[in-house]
Amino acid sequence: MIPSGTVTTISRIKKTIDVLRRKNSQKQQEFERTIYSKTLVSSNSELEAFVLENNLVVYRTALDFQVYVVASNIENEMIVSSVLLAFYSALSLLTGGIMEKHVLLEHFDVCMLAFDELIDDGVILEIDPDSIYQRVSLHEFQSDALGADNPLAQAFATAREQLSKNLLR
User: Residue 25's CB: how many other CB atoms inside 10 A?
Assistant: First the structure.
């Protein structure tokens, strides 16, 4: 039997964690809004970078969306830029060069696989867009072979539908 004081302590800890999560979520949303507002007027399709709240933000604007990489401001700007270029180029290869929001949403699962091949838990795995493209194409081929009963394919389809609803409003 668990002493009643322990349950109360656990309850207080859970409430504290919930409050911290909400605060961090609000800070994250505010940070993202600030980045978006600073980059909204940019029509340049080249890489651009700036520092915001001790973070290095590197981004590239496409036709109707932006791709961002955010890192600590102590990171090497050239490496962070290389990550962005690799991701952008891999997406371009995977979408047949059509870099529009609706195309990326239609291929959301492939975009997430490309990101997964590029970075894992903050560690850069690959920056060659052709290698990323080949690995993602292999995953796509394997999932097509498994069919629609694949739970991962179903999860990606659900995520794509929800993102499409939210982003295309």
Answer: 10
Whole-number Å distance between alpha carbons of 130 and 89 = 8
| Banded pLDDT at 146 (limits 50, 70, 90) | very low
**Measured between alpha carbons, how far apart are the two ends of the chain, in Å?**
52
Of 87, 53, 54, the closest CA to residue 69 belongs to: 87
Among 111, 108, 114, CA closest to 161: 108
Q: In whole angstroms, what is the distance from residue 115 CA to residue 90 CA?
A: 9
Residues forming a β-bridge with 119:
124
Q: Which residues contact 135 (CB under 8 A, 6 or more apart)?
A: 113, 117, 126
| Distance of alpha carbon 140 from alpha carbon 83, whole angstroms | 22
Chain segment 13-62, per-residue pLDDT in tens: 656 556 566 678 888 888 889 999 988 877 777 888 999 988 999 999 88
Q: Which residue has the higher pLDDT, 93 or 162?
A: 93
Looking at per-residue confidence, does 26 or 1 come out higher? 26
On whether the CB atoms of residues 90 and 114 are closer than 8 A, the answer is yes
Nearest CA to 49 among 59, 39, 40? 59
Task: Give the position of tokens 């800890």.
Answer: 13
Measured between alpha carbons, how far is 79 from 75 in angstroms, rounded to an integer?
8
